[in-house]
Amino acid sequence: MEEPVKAGICGEVAVLTFNRPKAYNAFDLDVISAFADHMTNLAVDDTVRGVVITGHGKVFCAGGDLRWVNAWPEGTAAAFHNLAGRFHQAILEIRRMKKPVIAAINGLAAGGGFSLALACDFRIMAASAVLRQAYTSNGLSIDGGGTFMLVRLVGLAKALEIAAFDGPITSDQALEWGLATKIAEDDKVVEEAMNMAEQLARKSLQSFGYSKQLLTDSFSNSFENHLEVERAALRACASHKDGREGIAAFLEKRKPRFNG
């Protein structure tokens, strides 16, 4: 039996691939549980310095499997309650992981796949790929942190437009609106994501992790509290070997060597 989520390591970068191409890489409870477990393990794996997420076939991820939801014995509300619980665990791992997570959007990213892509730190999008919020067209509300990330990426007015009208978002539109980091040729989207991950792997993960955390938490902290959090993070970075190496490299006018 094929793994629902394939996991591989290339150098210092892990690649997770949704592997249900006949179901448009939609996830049921087993699939999203496997994905969440992978993310949890990768978060504490010191040999991994970046994660790329993609889909097998022509689709990135079509989100929750509505056929599975409809067949759940306790009803659709209970199905979504269980599915969202595991999905949200994966999203939290992505946002709290102190290493870069890159979505290599090889095709349609819809519903939960849309929210998953937004939760990633960077999004490399195939030229022919399309983003689709999809929830509201099915009479549902957005989960997976989609409403949290969307409004922060595009602003309230555009986010509400996307939620209300649910039009397809092309790669060019996604780039213009700030939903995509970069557009790649269709057959090179994973390669571009790997190149980005490898570039980031050569930088300080300590610095990246704190920067990611500070930016994410800035929306919920008061200004005074956030200044104190910034000061504590700076102190932690300065006492870390990466901070010491970065300062030494600056003073010695050379490139820093953060990874050994």
Written overview of the protein:
This protein has 2 domains: 5-201, 2-enoyl-CoA Hydratase, Chain A, domain 1 (Alpha-Beta Complex), CATH 3.90.226; 205-251. It has helices at residues 29-43, 66-71, 76-96, 112-119, 146-154, 156-165, 171-177, 189-201, 205-217, 223-239, 241-251, and strands spanning 5-10, 13-18, 50-55, 59-61, 101-105, 108-110, 122-126, 130-132, 169-170, 182-184. The strands form 2 sheets. A 6-stranded mixed β-sheet has the order 1-2-3-5-7-10, sandwiched between helices. Helix 1 (29-43) links the parallel strand 2 and strand 3 (50-55). Helix 1 runs parallel beside helix 3 (76-96). The chain contains 11 helices and 10 strands.
Architecture blueprint of SSEs:
Layout lengths: L4 E6 L2 E6 L10 H15 L6 E6 L3 E3 L4 H6 L4 H21 L4 E5 L2 E3 L1 H8 L2 E5 L3 E3 L13 H9 L1 H10 L3 E2 H7 L4 E3 L4 H13 L3 H13 L5 H17 L1 H11 L9
Parallel strand pairs: 2-3, 3-5, 4-6, 5-7, 6-8, 7-10
Antiparallel strand pairs: 1-2, 8-9
Helix pairs in contact: 1-3, 4-5, 5-6, 9-10
CATH superfamily of the largest domain: 2-enoyl-CoA Hydratase, Chain A, domain 1
As residue ranges, the low-confidence spans are none
CATH topology of the largest domain: 2-enoyl-CoA Hydratase, Chain A, domain 1
The domain count comes to: 2
Based on the coordinates given, report the CATH architecture of the largest domain: Alpha-Beta Complex
Considering DSSP H and I runs of 4 or more, what fraction of the residues is helical? 40-55%
